[in-house]
Amino acid sequence: MFELEGDGFTDMDRMLLTADRLERLAANLRAIHAGAGPTEDDLASAPVIENWATEFVPAKVLFGRVAGNLPEKYLGFCSTDLWVLAEPRGWVLTLERWYRLGQPEKLRK
After folding, report:
1. How far apart are CA 82 and CA 69, in angstroms?
2. CB contact at 8 A, 9 and 18
3. Do 2 and 9 meet the contact criterion of CB atoms below 8 Å apart?
4. Angle 8-58-61 from CA coordinates, rounded to 5°
5. d(CA 35, CA 60)
6. What percent of the chain has pLDDT over 70?
7. Distance of CA 9 to the CA centre of its chain
8. How far apart are CA 10 and CA 109, in angstroms?
9. Which residues face 100 on adjacent strands?
């Protein structure tokens, strides 16, 4: 959300960054629709999210732990808005980027 204050909007740089992200998202959605999905290079450079689950906050996002060489104090991860969840294919598309899916969170009964 961008807020108008006086004659201008606050955080114009963030507005342009969001526009760039939306343009990339639109191109990725068109590729998925055409059956192209993420490329091997897209997924090779995508972080792996372990112990993942989805939540509404108020948009659907992905929670989890990024796999790799992270400090022990690293507690978790929350993505930008989740746009495409392709669990059988092992990837998701958020507003910001592609992610590879590791193991989902094991819910306690």
Report:
1. 24
2. no
3. yes
4. 105
5. 23
6. 81
7. 26
8. 46
9. 48, 91
